[in-house]
Amino acid sequence: MRPPEQAPRRPPSGAGTPGAPWQRLSTRVIWVDLVQSIASLLPAVVALAVFGVAPGSGQLWPLLGFAAFGVLGAIADALRWAFTRYRITASHVEMKTGVFLRVERSIRRDRIRSVDIEARPRHRLFGLRVVNIGAGQQAAEGESALALDAVSTADARALQDRLLRMTDATAEPDGAAPAGEEATRTEGTAPLAVLARFRPGWVVYHMMSVWAYVLALGFGWGIFWLLGSSGVDVTGFVAGLLDWEAIGWAGTVAIAFLAVTLFGVIGLAVNYFAEYGNFELARVPGTEGTLLRTRQGLFTTREVNRDENRIRGVQLSEPLLWRWLRACDTSVITTGLSMWSMARPAAVLPRGPVTVARRVAAEVLGGESPWAVSPKAHPAAALRRRLWWATLFTAAVGLALLGTAAAGLLPYTALWAAAALWPCALGAAFVAYRALGHAVTGPYLVMRSGLVHRSTTVLRRSAVSTIVIRESLLQRRLGLRSVSAMTAAGYGAYDLPDLDADESVAFAAQAAPGVLDPFLVRPRDGAARPAAGAGPTRDGARATR
């Protein structure tokens, strides 16, 4: 896919556009703030009127703090509405906001990479949406990004449709287009193809992770605090459920662990339906090609559009705990999206079966399936390197335990923990070695590595701008090298560790056609080797012995 041509430079913000009107956010946000204020006051009112909590008791102070937090937040939101203005000119999107610290932001329209629509429950209640306008920024302070919170649903659709149009902006009149007309056209756009829809059965892939225990403990503590603040004796209720003395401490710990696990699993299952309900991945028409559009969410809805002209590849990540179920996460490697956002805008599928993920990824890549060729395994020296590191790690843990035991802080029997850790570390080293693999198939470069998350990266070779070949002292001893492919998309760099030294240069030359050619010599056998004294290239590529 060819990236779109660069748009001509625009005049400075506001130049030649004196009539572009400044607009307010929707006045409905005031009603949202009123409901938020009342809702934050309700727990304290219920505690006083229903449960008879004394006004001066310590149980009431947390509820009063919660009420103050909610009311002050609503007031701040109302002030933000009063002091926020935005406008769309022929060349820029501009916003002014701030009460004490005035902030003015401006994004050139030809630099806009994404216009996402989000709706939290309190926004949906009043027909509002949040429009997030991105310019390819990472999550760093000071980079251009705008969030219009909140505009009406019709205006949000109109803004998305207008800002994603890649037509000549200078020919477009200033001011906002009729919201109703734009929204109708956007809502009525039928997808060219639906690649995936919500599947309730995929909940099994989302029901178990470390977050289950975080969710269970956090939510359980919240319930304990809330009931305790209302005068309910939660400790006495739990103590009366079973004869804990007869069960013993081991049984008590086991029951508590099972209860927390069950509660966390149920919580993650509910979260899956809330986050991915009504999910749909579709290919929709754009002005210069097609867009990949995802819509998801039962309560907080979110829509993300990705220009397929900017997609450079896909990545499938298989978490270690879910690998036995053949489950993986699927994301696209594209320019213009922040890879560090908690919202994960690059993700195009919920965690699901690898077979479905590969099919969808092949359709995203235009029908080509890079998985037709099995990745080539890495040499046995890569396994030896990982076994050495596993042994050194275990030895370091053992020395730390020995020093702690010698200081009298732990018994010497704690050294058995290091003995038990060693086979686990060796097994992890073997798993990490089995994850290594690479291939070059057609226009794509395939790289696979990772222990906790085994990631298979499929990257378009024409998108690779820089190649780095490096080796550590241990790698040089074992005859290994690592190759990094860098691109102006996704995370920016994708590493492939521990290739055979004799194969690394040839693989790097195939991965980035033409980048290393001025620094390679090809003897009669046709194998690519680095030229004598080869160093950094103009593009930053490096070929070293």
From TrEMBL:
Where does the record place Low complexity bias? 528-538
Domain of life, per UniProt, equals Bacteria
- UniProt entry keywords in alphabetical sequence: Membrane, Transmembrane, Transmembrane helix
InterPro entries xref list: UCP026631 (IPR014529), YdbS-like_PH (IPR005182)
User: What residue ranges are annotated as transmembrane?
Assistant: 30-54, 60-79, 202-227, 247-273, 387-409, 415-436
Q: Where is this region: Disordered?
A: 1-21, 526-545
Q: Which residues, if any, are the signal sequence?
A: none
- Compositionally biased residues, Pro residues: 1-11
Query: Which Pfam families does the UniProt record give?
Result: bPH_2
Q: Where is the YdbS-like PH domain?
A: 81-162, 433-503
What is the name of the protein in this document? PH domain-containing protein
**Taxonomic lineage:** Bacteria, Bacillati, Actinomycetota, Actinomycetes, Kitasatosporales
